[in-house]
């Protein structure tokens, strides 16, 4: 009787072994893919002021998970449209907050970030639905021209310490610009791979 039970167990193990092997292999593949994706984000965000923060923003961009690491044009395109959408949101929030604080001494960071967001919005407001590499190059050239005398922008340089903002709402505006700027830096770096910026002092320093 014991021998029969042992045989049944052995038979069940033989039946289950292929399934267990498939599950193990699929788990390994998923883990490898996840690691490769994380490394991809880290490499893209190496130019950001705050790499961990940049990674969180980049991984939230719809469609970027499937993009090949070396597809610089597509990465730049996704970054541009993400930045355009977030800039529109941030400008609305900044304008509302400035209007609410009219007549009061608004924080320097709020003013700086609102100004920087407005400059970004002026470039990205009419961004086409689709971008080819040359259009992306021209768009980033305009972004860089906006900030050519302010590298990095005041909101990025002076307001990284959120405690300098006068309120949580103002700190949120600071965060929004930092997220947008990090995405812009990643996209700009990708375009630089396709069209290296000339080494001059006009408008072509990398963000």
List keywords for this structure.
mainly alpha
Walk me through this protein's architecture.
The chain is mainly α and 207 residues long. The chain has a domain at 88-197. Helices cover 69% and strands 0% of the residues. It contains seven helices and no strands. The chain has helices at residues 2-44, 51-58, 72-100, 108-124, 133-146, 154-158, 168-194. Helix 3 crosses helix 4 and helix 5 (133-146) packs across helix 7. The chain is elongated. The termini are far apart. The mean pLDDT is 82.
Low-confidence stretches: none
Average pLDDT confidence is 82
Structural class: mainly alpha
Taking all Cα atoms into account, the compactness measure Rg is 24 Å
Oligomer: single chain
Note the beta-strand portion. under 5%
Annotation, overall tally of beta strands: 0
Q: Helical stretch count? A: 7
N- to C-terminal separation? 77 Å
Largest sheet: none
Helical percentage: 55-70%
> Overall 3D geometry?
elongated
| Element pattern in H and E | HHHHHHH
Structure described in brief:
This protein has helices at about 1-45, 50-60, 70-100, 110-125, 135-145, 155-160, 170-195. The chain is mainly α and about 210 residues long.
Write the layout of secondary structure elements.
Elements: H1 2-44, H2 51-58, H3 72-100, H4 108-124, H5 133-146, H6 154-158, H7 168-194
Helix pairs in contact: 1-2, 3-4, 3-7, 4-5, 4-7, 5-7
GO molecular function: enzyme inhibitor activity
Protein name: Pectinesterase inhibitor domain-containing protein
Keywords: Signal
């Amino acid at each position: 009787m014991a021998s029969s039970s042992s045989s049944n167990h052995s038979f069940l193990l033989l039946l289950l072994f292929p399934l267990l092997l498939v599950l193990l292999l699929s788990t390994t593949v998923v883990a490898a893919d996840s690691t490769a994706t994380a490394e991809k984000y880290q490499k893209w965000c190496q130019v950001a002021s705050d790499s961990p923060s940049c990674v969180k923003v980049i991984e939230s961009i719809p469609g970027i998970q499937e993009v090949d690491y070396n597809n610089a044009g597509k990465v730049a395109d996704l970054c541009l449209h993400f930045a355009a959408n977030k800039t529109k949101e941030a400008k609305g929030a900044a304008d509302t907050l400035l209007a609410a604080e009219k007549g009061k001494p608004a924080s320097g960071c709020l003013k700086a970030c609102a100004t920087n967001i407005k400059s970004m919005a002026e470039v990205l407001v009419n961004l086409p639905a689709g971008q080819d590499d040359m259009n992306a190059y021209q768009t980033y050239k305009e972004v860089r021209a906006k900030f050519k005398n302010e590298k990095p922008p005041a909101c990025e340089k002076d307001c990284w310490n959120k405690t300098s903002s006068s309120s949580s709402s103002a700190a949120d505006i600071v965060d929004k610009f930092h997220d947008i700027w990090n995405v812009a830096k990643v996209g700009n770096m990708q375009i630089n791979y396709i069209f290296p910026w000339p080494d001059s002092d006009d408008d072509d320093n990398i963000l």
